[in-house]
Amino acid sequence: MPLKLENRIPDIVIGRLPLYLRALNRLKQEGIEVTSSHELGQRLGISSAQIRKDLSHFGGFGKQGTGYQINFLITKLQSVLKINQRWQVAVVGAGNLGSAISHYRGFQDRGFEIAWLFDADESKIGQQVGRFTVQAISELKKVISENKIQIAMVAVPAEQAQEVADILVDAGIRAILNYAPINLTVPDHVMVQYIDPVVHMQHMTYYLDENA
């Protein structure tokens, strides 16, 4: 049964959980076993009250005055984010960006596996990109259906991104990470996240002193 609207956890809270998880893993690497909302807040620039409020949506993870057991909290957050399993991911676009994404090893220990690389350019199909053989986008629907893939990354030019998104949605993809500098139109049941470095830099320049 779907959650009632008033019981849904705000998406902005969900968006902070991976930041908490990353900070906790860093603390673990440093050999620290127990932390506090104050320490996490200092590392992340988020108030300790906000951290406690966010975590309270998912139950009690620590005791007043004793802090959080880092291993326990990592395990709980991995479960909440459903990354206590390995998600296979399809990448569409075998250009410079798509190739770089397929080579990046940082996904593997965070719950994701880049498993396929697709492209529409016939000159790229069949080429070897790292450990991947580039497959034709015409094979995408079959591969996604047979392997029950739910996540895809779009690394194609803006003018091709919507068409690719339509193919992905039709194939059954439920979550898209879009690197193309364009907003996609997808059904309500499909989640889209955007990565556009230019947008982020334009955000930052607002705060810069142009005369510095």
From TrEMBL:
Q: Tell me the keywords, alphabetical order.
A: Cytoplasm, DNA-binding, NAD, Repressor, Transcription, Transcription regulation
What InterPro entries does the record tag this protein with? CoA-bd, NAD(P)-bd_dom_sf, Rex_actinobacterial-type, Rex_DNA-bd_C_dom, Tscrpt_rep_Rex, WH-like_DNA-bd_sf, WH_DNA-bd_sf
Instruction: Please tell me whether the keyword DNA-binding is annotated for this protein.
Output: yes
Which residue ranges does the record assign to the CoA-binding domain? 82-183
Which positions are annotated as binding NAD(+)? G93, A94, G95, N96, L97, G98
Quote a single Gene Ontology cellular component term: cytoplasm
> Which residues fall under the DNA-binding region feature?
19-58
Gene Ontology terms for molecular function:
DNA binding; DNA-binding transcription factor activity
**Gene Ontology biological process terms, A to Z:** negative regulation of DNA-templated transcription; response to redox state
Highest taxon in the source lineage:
Bacteria
As for subcellular location, the record says:
Cytoplasm
Q: What is its main location?
A: cytoplasm
Q: Which family does it belong to?
A: Belongs to the transcriptional regulatory Rex family.
Main role? Answer: Modulates transcription in response to changes in cellular NADH/NAD(+) redox state.
- State how it assembles: Homodimer.
Q: Which protein are we looking at? A: Redox-sensing transcriptional repressor Rex
This chain's source organism reads Phototrophicus methaneseepsis
Q: What is the lineage of its organism?
A: Bacteria, Bacillati, Chloroflexota, Candidatus Thermofontia, Phototrophicales
